[in-house]
Amino acid sequence: MSKAFRVIKSSAPTRIDLAGGTLDIWPLHLFFDNPPTLNAAIDLYATVEIIPRKDQRVFLTSRDLGLRDNFSSLGKIPDNHPLELIVRTLKFYQPQSGLEIISDCRAPQGSGIGGSSALNIALHGALNRFTKRGYRKAEMIEIAKNIETQVIKVPAGCQDYYPAMYGGVRKILPGVRRTETQKFSISPAELTRNFILCYTGKPRNSGINNWEVTKKALDGNRTVIRHLKSIRDCAVEMEKVLSRGNLKSLAPIFAREWKARKQLAPNISTTQMDRLMRSAMNKGALAGKVCGAGGGGCVAFIVPPAKKQTVIEELTSKGGQVLPFRFVSRGQRDAEIKMQ
Question: Over 50: is that where the pLDDT of 1 sits?
Fold first, then answer.
């Protein structure tokens, strides 16, 4: 009879950013009165499975990227591997035995909805349990942010890790002492009825646009600073709307935030994104905004429920890929399962 072994499974949600993105990057928030960043977790999950081995071999499989590799030991894996985020995180935790890591993410690559950060958090949850390190959630977020910065080689913002770790419709508030977060008491189902997520089919280059904006702001570019102040003001106003649960007031702020964000850099919106935005608005969408740093990826739309199907059909006819999703309250979860 074969001996039972433990398999660890971990998952974390991706997110749609609502307002205040880019200002979550250190030290930008310090220059704009530490405004909130607002986002909401969605059920396009990143998942990680860890299967222990009796030897020292390491097997890595990324199902969404179609990559597989294996090594005789942890020390034989180069840092500059195509799965660098997984490799660096694995080396940080230093497991004492061999293992197989299988990762997957339902968010399209480069979609701008925090797929790499969700995978990062799911991986930390799995490895934290596997190695019994005992890190708290806040510690794992800090470690994840710093490792991702090493991978993308520009400063990583903090907002994406919080919906992945905690779930829900959420405020992230970077401050002088620490980053705080709070969940709004909004029904995810109600929010879902009013949103559409459309993938352009063209991935974005993660981190590049945000870093260009950050550099310009630090250099004192007055135009960039003015638009960042507008984004800050939108985030502050939207926080009040979400605190009151008044979803009817969300769309005008969502639209103003996008108008300011679009001015930050010439490549934040693409010709295709502009075309999809116009088409959706012509069919009844109330507002739209490119997800994440832009330059490709997804566009999120706020739409009256009665117009939703019409807008979906229009976006599909114009070459957009509408992604089925739901807003969710839950964050990262992991479990240890005994296998025979």
Answer: no
